[in-house]
Automatic annotation (TrEMBL):
InterPro entries: Anthranilate_Pribosyl_Tfrase, Glycosyl_Trfase_fam3_N_dom, Glycosyl_Trfase_fam3_N_dom_sf, Nuc_phospho_transferase. This is Glycosyl transferase family 3 N-terminal domain-containing protein. Residues 12-74 form the Glycosyl transferase family 3 N-terminal domain. The keyword Glycosyltransferase applies. Pfam families: Glycos_trans_3N. Transmembrane segments: none annotated. GO terms for cellular component: cytosol. The lineage of its organism: Bacteria, Pseudomonadati, Pseudomonadota, Gammaproteobacteria, Thiotrichales. SUPFAM superfamilies: Nucleoside phosphorylase/phosphoribosyltransferase catalytic domain (SSF52418), Nucleoside phosphorylase/phosphoribosyltransferase N-terminal domain (SSF47648). The keyword Magnesium does not apply. GO terms for biological process: L-tryptophan biosynthetic process. Coiled coil: none annotated. Keywords: Glycosyltransferase, Transferase.
């Protein structure tokens, strides 16, 4: 009998791609073994494309996502730090219409002493504004490895680390979207990497239903991290103030949810504001943007629910206080 690592990759394609009555999803162990072969370069381009798209057509299951995450986490080693990172934040979508206001919420948290690790990639879609470009504009520290990220977090409270510096294969896998024309399961599981095992991990998704996927996957991984997953703007982890947002939470095999209320009435769905100067001007108090500031408060409050075990109502009040008290430094 073959062990999982010795099973030919064709087995996994056959399992998910057979006729309607014979095909099935992969178990968590099978998904982990399949991803291990992919990461080890033991899969042809044709096999990889077929595998990714077969799963894309029916969407990955929580068991498959959990197995993929386990395999990806084996690629890197988490540095031992003299403290626990408070907040993990994956950014893998990019923004298309409005600025990434959530970054200012993270700056507020960093000023309050929370250790924040932001990770992501620069994608291939020229119509999107990716987080690394904004981080560079804001002059945030950017790490070249997890070890470097740990060193930076020892000195300060906020760091961005490109995902390809700790999982070299991930950008290549995600960039297949440009050739295939569709996202793949890698776009889902990248948000779950949580390289420092932070206390709270925040996941933004684009399509309704993927928030449930993230929540159930977190319970399968039996993580001590509290996961907060929700449909955010353009797939980023940013709470839109013009909609009621259902936040799906999980920790230690337990799952629950809470609602962030709608607090903004007049968002223009056709407007587009992507000037980075405005982001900095709002932070410095040199400009006002009602929608942007409402977004900052909603996103900040959502995180405070997880970090400080507050109700959404109390979290919104505290978010307002922290925003008003921020140090308006460039």
């Amino acid at each position: 009998m073959n062990t999982p690592n010795k099973v030919p990759f064709q087995f996994y394609i056959q399992t998910i791609g057979r006729g309607q009555k014979r095909r099935r999803s992969l178990t968590q162990a099978e998904a982990k073994a399949a991803m291990q072969q992919i990461l080890q370069g033991k899969v042809t381009d044709m096999q990889l494309g077929a595998f990714l798209m077969l799963i894309r057509v029916r969407e990955e299951t929580p068991e498959e996502a959990a197995g993929f995450v386990e395999a990806l986490r084996e690629v890197f080693e988490t540095p031992v730090l003299p403290f626990q990172v408070d907040l993990d934040w994956g950014s893998y979508a990019g923004k298309r219409r409005v600025l990434p206001w959530y970054l200012l919420a993270l700056q507020v948290l960093a000023q309050q002493g929370y250790k924040v690790c932001l990770h992501g990639i620069v994608g291939t879609d020229t119509g999107r504004l990716y987080t690394q470009e904004v981080v560079e504009y804001l002059d945030w520290p950017i790490a070249n490895s997890l070890t470097h990220a740990g060193e930076l977090l020892t000195q300060q409270n906020l760091v961005y680390v490109p995902a390809e510096t700790f999982v070299p294969q991930i950008k290549v896998l995600m960039d297949h979207r440009a050739e295939l024309g569709l996202r793949s399961p890698v776009h889902t599981v990248a948000r779950m990497l949580n390289p420092f095992n932070a206390k709270v991990s925040v996941h933004g998704v684009f399509h309704k239903g993927y928030d449930d996927l993230h929540q159930i996957t977190a319970t399968l991984l039996n993580s001590k991290t509290q996961t907060l997953a929700f449909c955010g703007d353009a797939g980023e982890a940013e709470v839109r103030p013009d909609k009621q947002t259902d936040i799906k939470a999980a920790k230690n095999n337990q799952a629950w949810s809470f609602l962030m209320p709608k607090t903004f009435e007049n968002a223009d769905p056709t407007s587009k504001e992507m000037q980075l100067d405005l982001l900095k001007a709002v932070w410095l108090g040199e400009a006002e943007n009602a929608f942007g500031q409402a977004t900052i408060l909603q996103t900040l409050a959502m995180v405070l629910v997880g970090l400080e075990n507050l109700t959404p109502e109390r979290a919104l009040l505290k978010a307002e206080q922290l925003w008003q008290a921020r140090e308006k430094t460039s």
